[in-house]
Amino acid sequence: MHWFNAGCWIFLFLTGLGLIQNDDLQPFTSWPTILRIVFGGGANLLLAHEIVGIIWAGGFLLYGIIRLKSDVLPFFREIFNVDIHRDFLWLIAKGIQMTLGYQALGIIAKKFGFSPVIPDQGFYNIGQKIFAIPAVFGGIVIVASGITMILSQIGMASTELVQWAILIHFITVGLVFAGLLIHVFMASIAAGEQPAFISMFTGSVPEDYARHHHKLWLDEVKKS
Amino acid sequence: MNKQLAMIIDSSACIDCKACTLACKVENNVPEGKWRNWVKRSEPDFNKPDWMVHSASFHFQPGGCMHCEVPTCVQACPTGATYKDEKDGAVKIDPKLCIGCGSCIPACPYGARYRHPTRNIVDKCDYCEKRRARGELPACVVTCPTKARVFGDINDPKSDAALLLKKNQSVRVINKESDTKPNMYYLSATAPLNWPVKARMPDPIQLWKMAGPLIWGIVGLNAIGVLIMLGKQILMNDKAPETDESHEETRQS
Amino acid sequence: MTSPIETPLSRRSFLKWSGAATAAAAVGGKAPVLYALTPDETKKSFAKPDSRYSVCGMCLNACGLVARVENGVITKLDPNQKFLKSRGMLCARGNAGIQQLYDPDRLKYPLLRKGERGEGKWERISWDQALDLAAAKMTEIAEKYTRCGVMFTPGSDSQSLFVHWFAEVFGSYNVSTHESSCLLSRNRAYLDTFGEVPFADVLHTKYIIVAGANPFEALITPDSIDLMTAKKNGCKIVVLDPRFTKTAGLAHEWHPIRPGTDMAFFLALSHVITSEKLYNETYAQEKLSGIEQLTEHVLQYSPEWAEKECEIPAADIRRIARELAAAAPTAIVYPGRRTSDYVNSTQIRRSMAIVNALLGNWDSPGGLLAARQVGLSGPELPEAPFYDDNPEHRLDKGMAKMMFEEEGAFKHMRDAIIAQKPYPVKGWFVYRYNPLQSAANRQKTIEMMKQLDFIVTVDIAMSDTAWMSDLVLPAPSVLERQDPASGLQGSAACACVVARDPVVPALFESRPVFEILKGLAGRMKLAEYFDFTMEEYRKQQFKLLPDADRAIREDGVYYNPSKLYGIYEGKIYKTLSKKIELYNERYAQMGVDPIPVYQSPKPNPINQFRLVVGRNAYFTHCTTQNNALLNELMPDNSLWIHPVAAKKLDIKDGERVEVTSNAGKGELSVSLNNGIREDTVYMASGFGVLSKGLTRVYGKGACIAELIEDYADDISGNMAMHETFIRVAKKGAV
After folding, report:
1. Alpha-carbon distance C24 to nearest alpha carbon in chain B (angstroms)
2. Is some CB atom of chain A closer than 8 A to the CB atom of B56?
3. Measured between alpha carbons, how far is C396 from C391 in angstroms, rounded to an integer?
4. What is the tens place of the pLDDT at every residue in C604-662?
5. Would you list the domain boundaries of chain A?
6. Does the beta-carbon distance from B245 to A212 stay under 8 Å?
7. Residue C27 predicted with pLDDT over 50
8. Domains (ranges, CATH) in chain C?
9. Which residue has the higher pLDDT, C534 or B233?
10. If you count DSSP H runs as helices and E runs as strands, how many of each does chain A have, helices first?
């Protein structure tokens, strides 16, 4: 499902970006041109974007219905499971560690009087949750605004509505994409992420990895 | 040299018979309540006490999409569904790419565009593209009793349109704040003059033009963050303190 | 059913919805079927070309057109660029002809009235039943009341000549046409001055006075177009009109003349031209009869005198007379067309014709032109039978001093039928004619109908007259018809012949009136008089024009390169004196003023307005208001009234008012207009319909026929439609 999501998302992002052909709005002017050549015209590009968009949304709708109890609700429970104090501290500490290093973390922690130990995290760390929440709800907004645009083509949306939909679609995609950059780095390129990346295919992580990164979850699993 | 299709109009010959608007409507299946072209009317100033003395004071002005040099409608379109064709200078609409958001409609100072109620896209004059493909002139040009409209390629010095422009003075009807450099020329003079409105982008599009750079900025910031982390990962040998059971401390890039 | 609001006008969707083909097929194959839906039809001769010539039928101008046909559906009507008379144009109505063809409201099947006249209850019957009934009724009336007991009113249409022919062989003298609501007085006046009715060479003239005509609005080819060309070539245009019309607005001078005083103006022009000897004396000696009498007669009609009558400054009148004379002979007083305005409309046009005569412009460039030779032959038809029980004369004989025998006058016919004197008329055959909208005093027309036992109307739409009939027969549009050849006078542009062939087969069960008359003739022992096909008829018409057939096939028109100027060289004029008559001897003999004598029009009663009527570029009289394309240009009519006059009545722009006259009343909104005299109001024709079969226009506006009192011109019997005064009151006010 994740890869279905990722694949659709990348395709939609790239084609969506390519659909924006306007001097004021498009910083990468050659991208729309290239895509239009590849797809054989702007109309085909739009069609591809819309079809994959519907497949993506449809896929999630089905998933949401079929796997509601088994996957979806637990997922939502987990990403909203936040311990403000601990997780805020994790953000600060991890953030400094990822950019400036453990040594710097120690120095800064001492200076500002907080523990240099990076707090434990659950199945998802707060960084992942901070991306997940906007990603999911942003996704819903993106789908809704996208469907509005499709509805316009069958006469079921007013021009005013569609114009706002376009704006919201762009802003939401932009913001989620900004977060996506971090997510991709953290999930695949960042040091020590290999097991996690592999687990997206196999479904499991080494215990070692879990202890280091998601200790709270490991404890829970061990309990049951 | 690329073409620039244009209309040269002798509005003093217009008798407001509306033949051009009907011919266009039939030729292009323009829906009820919408028009691709028009005839504007200028009346005497009835407030002047001697208004009757100065006769010859109706003036009728045929018009339509002016296929401007600086089309504000194109500037408003997010997807380039409407665009100025380099080859013939006409401003066109790709009906399969247009989703009917209507951003281009208020962006036209002349009100030349409308949203088609059943095709759900934006429509406007296309100089009767299908007729031209058959070697015919646009419907409005052909049907006019006084032949007030002349159509042609003004980049071709031998065309009727270009010759008319060369031999006569002409004016264009513009809104001072939005001079889109229309490709519709009126021979010697015309009235009314002050009717085009300022080109306006719809609020969401204006917001987008402002928000756009902001969003890209945020993306950029995040990208920079990622690059910093990547850089740190490559350049720094970051060991966790001993209390931590590290398992991947050093990763050579 | 597709709503007209949501759906773009789509002929294809109309045809699908209407099931035109299936309906026609269901009737049993006799009616033609849309060829696109029956593959066999595609083998017919008109399947291959996607362009076909025809001639517009939306008005009498008959502009040549090219119809574009795609998959059996006409998708566009374009001007025939080889058509000189129209200067290669097609106006708004011409373009809208496509909508007349595919109008959902068009008549489709023969309809028999159920319930009372005007109730709108119809029973669909077969053609056999319809023709049997009509033939039986007409025969019944003929036996009881003589053949003259049936009145025939053929409208302006290429096939109307067959209605005339049918009336002749049926034996009725009581034939009346549109002309007695239109141009009879002009024709009378010019016939009685020049011996024939002229055409104006507008293209080449250098000075033109347009009085009571509106060529830039009421399109007439080539005049309306040539007037613009002439203007650009330096022709000066002077307009006299109580309204600031389009012609007035594009002219050099406009004078808001007091309505009904045109004669004063033109008598004053004659005064200046004769007293200052601004005419060619040699010409006058050779060609004009009565110059001395005229000079004497108009001495009393000075510009100073005229100023008091027509409210145009004397200095202007004098100046215009001199300018006009200086431009002679390339100067015209435009004869106009519709002259159904005042009770002395013939004499008014006599005064205008006289000025034309003084200008010496007859038969020369920029002047008045004689009819050019077209070259069609009359067909060889058998001699019509004589019915010895018939009365001696037509019903309205003698009711106007110098009536055209073959035209009569509808107003007088109507009065006679209401009175059932001198003899009863009980039947009425109507073809493409709608007096319930076009003839003054609608209530009188309704009263006339009460006297009639049987009324049959042939039309393409459910006009008001059809709505009130007993039997309604559906006719096709001209695009579905094969017509006899017609000759057209294009003044300086051409003399030409047109003939229509069907562009598409007739829709539904519509039948051209030629077929209907054949069917009636067959049932009334008159078959021998209609024993020919349209092709045979045309062949006879083309006897002297061997090239006409080919030209019409290849170019859509045949031109006769006949003489344009100098037709009268060495010839006499068809008048008593054999010259152009300033003084009309025959009038004197008949007790009519031989030179017009001025009569002041009635002054407005207090707080009342004179109602004037006129034409519109978007509509053809009162017959196209329901056409969806044209209706969009003007969905309603309104009363033009001057803001000062409106203020006195406390009426604001757009408000609803009640209008009443001695003839009837109506309700509509007002349009404040500075371009009209304060004592005058105007409204467009064709609204305030009775017929619910005109779904777009029903319920809109008010009807001029309801309001206009039925005066008639003394001499010709032409209706006089500007003699009515109306009261205007805010809706709801006392």
Report:
1. 26
2. no
3. 12
4. 999 999 999 998 999 999 999 999 999 999 999 999 999 999 999 999 999 999 999 99
5. 1-66
6. yes
7. no
8. 111-176+384-471+510-544 (3.40.50.740), 184-370+581-589 (3.40.228.10), 609-730 (2.40.40.20)
9. C534
10. 11, 0
